[in-house]
Amino acid sequence: QVQLVESGGGLVQAGGSLRLSCAASGRTVSTATMGWFRQAPGKERDFVSAISWSGGNTYYADTVKGRFTISKDNAKNTVYLQMNSLKPEDTAVYYCAAGYMASTRQTMGVAYWGQGTQVTVSS
pLDDT of 45-55, one tens digit each? Predict the structure, then answer.
């Protein structure tokens, strides 16, 4: 069984920064692609970013490229999402995910989800 626990969400003004963390447990985590999705009210859950199990490859949605940075600490089984230059349209529930990178390299196939953490960006 894999458990993903997110933290770090909150309220921030436009232009500000937040760092999300996802603590993972389970025997398959060290070899899984880890990533983040987000879901705004009334909208679908969208891919945000992912990182390969080695940390050597990272992927970003066009909407966050250049503003968000994904990283991981394998010793701590933790994935981070550093979010800078936040915009009101970044407001959403952010979900940690474990799975594999899709062949399109534009989303993930997800086997496990975290419970989500709210990020609210005020204008």
Answer: 999 999 998 88
